[in-house]
């Protein structure tokens, strides 16, 4: 499948009074047409900053992109000025934000908020834009759109508001949809509805989605591929099955081990000890080393490159080096791998190099 | 669980704006018991009344009607100051948002020792410092942290301070209202493990309020599911997950995404439609099998019993 977006060696820094924070430190990934790429990681891992860079929403002048390329449609988005970016934002690439309570303007009727982009980008007349806005509301499953379009955000519930936000994002048939924790503020049943809606729309429109979340359950539900971020870098990337059933990076092990599953009767969750590093002074070597229970000497000295596990699966950990000692993943993660192997036959093992 | 009841809640009601047009029946006639030493999970979606229940139990709200008995004594109603103080010591709360629940202008030592001073648990400043340092170590922080301010800590560390504050007065019962929702996954596991360890060491009883069902299942012995101010189902946590009876519980369980792509590809969501119940009969809370309670009509009750037999 063709790559619609390529991010190469992206760096983002923020100047603060305390010094320069290196929020994103060399991120590489591709996005294919019609796929959903989930980016997971803890707060501060740089996942939101990465998507903001794609949208040209890094606050200036404190935030900078000192290095790296964001290639989209033959252009490098990192080099565009504000005016050129405005042509792309909302038309080719649009965004769904986390909190539907704050991402809508409370003083504007939703009709105006949906029509804004249509009039700006697609040069529709007011009347045409209105007809299209009603269609969009119907598409995102809002009942009686002809009535609802004249209402204000406060007249909608949280789930309905997020539907409105999605309608705005979809207004100009974008090629890429960036969803930054779109369901975190919602209840589980509403979350399920919104996820179903997004998948439904993706099938119809072939939009590519970058989905940011820290909820691994949601990742398992929506993603085709998963990128795991830690301390401003992608430490592991692969298909959803690679990441959940054959994880290689100790941080991915930690993430998977700290989520209880419903059939889990264990006494202790495998918590990752410690806290993420301070990105004002990123550590030498593997950034995860101080929290890694099986840390090796080289982890503290040299940064691991991306090792290839399979065609689709890469991980940045010295454990994949040929001279590395064989370290077993924690029991909870191993069971997950075994459970998968027994359900699916030998596919699991066959994936290894 | 043995039958030693620490907390008995009977027909508890908490209405807001009583007798006005906008009356809200946030908690509408619920009854359950919490046994000593157990973790009782309370789950439901936002607005179902789970937090209000917690706050009413600890007397942050005055109950509209009903009883909350703690160690056999009613919590609500007129009380002398001394009795009230004793309640406040035995029942503590851990809040959801560690950024909002700690006073930014107080040091960690001041935050933790406030309760110690109120209840006269320490006599001298040396004793106070020692207690605070002990508590900090108990929750996995350093004693050097005592002189710092909340803004110097991360979310997980702040939640640990909140836990230390709750533990300071040696309570028997702790209400944890969404204590981990604001934290990252890896930090959530740290805090949950800490709560479990403390429970084993000190024989604490928890009321754990949350919307994250997988975490609640993990930590709780028994779970009650709330919907629109009512408890619709109550059972041992394994039983509730394996054999949910009430259609709302089923829909809630079917909506949780699990970190397992294969399961996710095959998960079928069940929707709950309240109109499926016989509206002519007021449902009652009935025990279908030992310890498994469901809010149901007589007809549904017969059906559930058949399923279970």
Automatic annotation (TrEMBL), chain A:
<keyword id="KW-0547">Nucleotide-binding</keyword>
<dbReference type="GO" id="GO:0016887">
    <property type="term" value="F:ATP hydrolysis activity"/>
</dbReference>
<keyword id="KW-0472">Membrane</keyword>
<dbReference type="Pfam" id="PF00005">
    <property type="entry name" value="ABC_tran"/>
</dbReference>
<keyword id="KW-0067">ATP-binding</keyword>
<comment type="similarity">
    <text>Belongs to the ABC transporter superfamily.</text>
</comment>
<dbReference type="GO" id="GO:0015833">
    <property type="term" value="P:peptide transport"/>
</dbReference>
<protein>
    <submittedName>
        <fullName>Oligopeptide transport system ATP-binding protein</fullName>
    </submittedName>
</protein>
<dbReference type="GO" id="GO:0005886">
    <property type="term" value="C:plasma membrane"/>
</dbReference>
<dbReference type="Pfam" id="PF08352">
    <property type="entry name" value="oligo_HPY"/>
</dbReference>
<feature type="domain" description="ABC transporter">
    <location>
        <begin position="5"/>
        <end position="256"/>
    </location>
</feature>
<dbReference type="InterPro" id="IPR050388">
    <property type="entry name" value="ABC_Ni/Peptide_Import"/>
</dbReference>
<dbReference type="InterPro" id="IPR013563">
    <property type="entry name" value="Oligopep_ABC_C"/>
</dbReference>
<dbReference type="InterPro" id="IPR003439">
    <property type="entry name" value="ABC_transporter-like_ATP-bd"/>
</dbReference>
<keyword id="KW-1003">Cell membrane</keyword>
<dbReference type="GO" id="GO:0005524">
    <property type="term" value="F:ATP binding"/>
</dbReference>
<dbReference type="InterPro" id="IPR003593">
    <property type="entry name" value="AAA+_ATPase"/>
</dbReference>
<dbReference type="InterPro" id="IPR017871">
    <property type="entry name" value="ABC_transporter-like_CS"/>
</dbReference>
<dbReference type="InterPro" id="IPR027417">
    <property type="entry name" value="P-loop_NTPase"/>
</dbReference>
<keyword id="KW-0813">Transport</keyword>
Automatic annotation (TrEMBL), chain B:
<comment type="similarity">
    <text>Belongs to the ABC transporter superfamily.</text>
</comment>
<dbReference type="Pfam" id="PF08352">
    <property type="entry name" value="oligo_HPY"/>
</dbReference>
<dbReference type="InterPro" id="IPR003593">
    <property type="entry name" value="AAA+_ATPase"/>
</dbReference>
<dbReference type="GO" id="GO:0015833">
    <property type="term" value="P:peptide transport"/>
</dbReference>
<dbReference type="InterPro" id="IPR013563">
    <property type="entry name" value="Oligopep_ABC_C"/>
</dbReference>
<dbReference type="GO" id="GO:0016887">
    <property type="term" value="F:ATP hydrolysis activity"/>
</dbReference>
<dbReference type="GO" id="GO:0005524">
    <property type="term" value="F:ATP binding"/>
</dbReference>
<feature type="domain" description="ABC transporter">
    <location>
        <begin position="7"/>
        <end position="253"/>
    </location>
</feature>
<dbReference type="InterPro" id="IPR027417">
    <property type="entry name" value="P-loop_NTPase"/>
</dbReference>
<keyword id="KW-0547">Nucleotide-binding</keyword>
<dbReference type="InterPro" id="IPR050319">
    <property type="entry name" value="ABC_transp_ATP-bind"/>
</dbReference>
<dbReference type="Pfam" id="PF00005">
    <property type="entry name" value="ABC_tran"/>
</dbReference>
<keyword id="KW-0067">ATP-binding</keyword>
<keyword id="KW-0813">Transport</keyword>
<protein>
    <submittedName>
        <fullName>Oligopeptide transport system ATP-binding protein</fullName>
    </submittedName>
</protein>
<dbReference type="InterPro" id="IPR003439">
    <property type="entry name" value="ABC_transporter-like_ATP-bd"/>
</dbReference>
<dbReference type="GO" id="GO:0055085">
    <property type="term" value="P:transmembrane transport"/>
</dbReference>
<dbReference type="InterPro" id="IPR017871">
    <property type="entry name" value="ABC_transporter-like_CS"/>
</dbReference>
């Amino acid at each position: 499948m063709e790559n619609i977006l390529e991010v190469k060696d992206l760096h983002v820094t923020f100047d603060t009074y305390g010094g320069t924070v290196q929020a994103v430190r060399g991120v590489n990934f591709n996005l294919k047409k019609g796929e959903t790429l989930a980016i997971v990681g803890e707060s501060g891992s740089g996942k939101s900053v990465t998507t903001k860079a794609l949208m040209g929403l890094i606050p200036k002048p404190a935030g900078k992109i000192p290095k790296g390329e964001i290639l989209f449609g033959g252009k490098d988005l990192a080099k565009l000025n504000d005016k050129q970016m405005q042509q792309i934002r909302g038309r080719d690439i649009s965004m769904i934000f986390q909190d539907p309570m704050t991402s809508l303007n409370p003083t504007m009727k939703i009709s105006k908020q949906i029509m804004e982009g249509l009039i700006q980008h697609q040069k529709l007349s007011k009347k045409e834009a209105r007809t299209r806005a009603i269609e969009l509301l119907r598409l995102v499953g809002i009942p009686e759109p002809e009535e609802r379009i004249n209402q204000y955000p406060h007249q909608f519930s949280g789930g309905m508001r997020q539907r409105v936000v999605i309608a705005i994002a979809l207004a100009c048939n974008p090629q890429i949809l960036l969803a930054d924790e779109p369901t975190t503020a919602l209840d589980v049943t509403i979350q399920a509805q919104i996820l179903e809606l997004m998948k439904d729309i993706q099938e119809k429109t072939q939009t590519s989605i970058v989905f940011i979340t820290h909820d691994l359950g949601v990742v398992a539900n929506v993603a085709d591929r998963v990128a795991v971020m830690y301390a401003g870098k992608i430490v592991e990337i692969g298909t959803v099955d690679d990441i959940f059933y054959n994880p290689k990076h100790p941080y991915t092990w930690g993430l998977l081990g700290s989520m209880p599953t419903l059939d889990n009767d264990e006494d202790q969750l495998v918590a990752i000890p410690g806290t993420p590093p301070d990105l004002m002074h990123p550590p030498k070597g593997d950034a995860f080393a101080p929290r890694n229970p099986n840390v090796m000497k080289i982890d503290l000295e040299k940064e691991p490159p991306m090792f290839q596990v399979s065609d689709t699966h890469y991980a940045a950990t010295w454990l994949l080096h040929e001279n590395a000692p064989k370290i077993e993943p924690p029991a909870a993660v191993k069971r997950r791998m075994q459970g998968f192997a027994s359900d699916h036959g030998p596919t699991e093992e066959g994936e290894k190099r | 669980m043995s039958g030693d009841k620490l907390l008995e809640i009977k027909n508890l009601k908490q209405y807001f704006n009583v007798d006005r047009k906008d009356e809200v029946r946030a908690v509408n006639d619920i009854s359950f018991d919490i046994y000593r030493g157990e973790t009782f999970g309370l789950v439901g979606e936002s607005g179902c009344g789970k937090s209000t229940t917690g706050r009413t139990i600890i007397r942050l709200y005055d109950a509209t009607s009903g009883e909350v008995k703690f160690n056999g004594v009613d919590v609500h109603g007129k009380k002398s100051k001394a009795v009230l103080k004793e309640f406040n010591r035995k029942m503590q709360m851990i809040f959801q948002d560690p950024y909002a629940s700690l006073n930014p202008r107080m040091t960690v030592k001041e935050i933790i020792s406030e309760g110690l001073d109120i209840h006269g648990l320490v006599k001298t400043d040396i004793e106070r410092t020692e207690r605070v340092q002990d508590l900090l170590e108990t929750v996995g922080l350093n004693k050097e942290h005592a002189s710092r301010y909340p803004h110097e800590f991360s979310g997980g560390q702040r939640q640990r301070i909140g836990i230390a504050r709750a533990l300071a007065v040696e309570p028997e019962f702790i209400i944890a209202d969404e204590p981990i929702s604001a934290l990252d996954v890896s930090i959530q596991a740290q805090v949950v493990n800490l709560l479990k360890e403390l429970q084993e060491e000190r024989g604490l009883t928890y009321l754990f309020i949350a919307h994250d069902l997988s975490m609640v299942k993990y930590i709780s012995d028994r779970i009650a599911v709330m919907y629109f101010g009512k408890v619709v189902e109550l059972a041992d946590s394994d039983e509730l997950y394996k054999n949910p009876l009430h259609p709302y519980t089923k829909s809630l369980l079917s909506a949780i995404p699990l970190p397992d792509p294969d399961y996710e590809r095959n998960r079928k969501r069940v929707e709950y439609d309240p109109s499926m119940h016989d509206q002519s009969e007021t449902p009652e809370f009935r025990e279908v099998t030992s310890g498994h309670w469901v809010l149901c009509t007589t007809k549904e009750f017969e059906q559930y019993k058949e399923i279970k037999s």
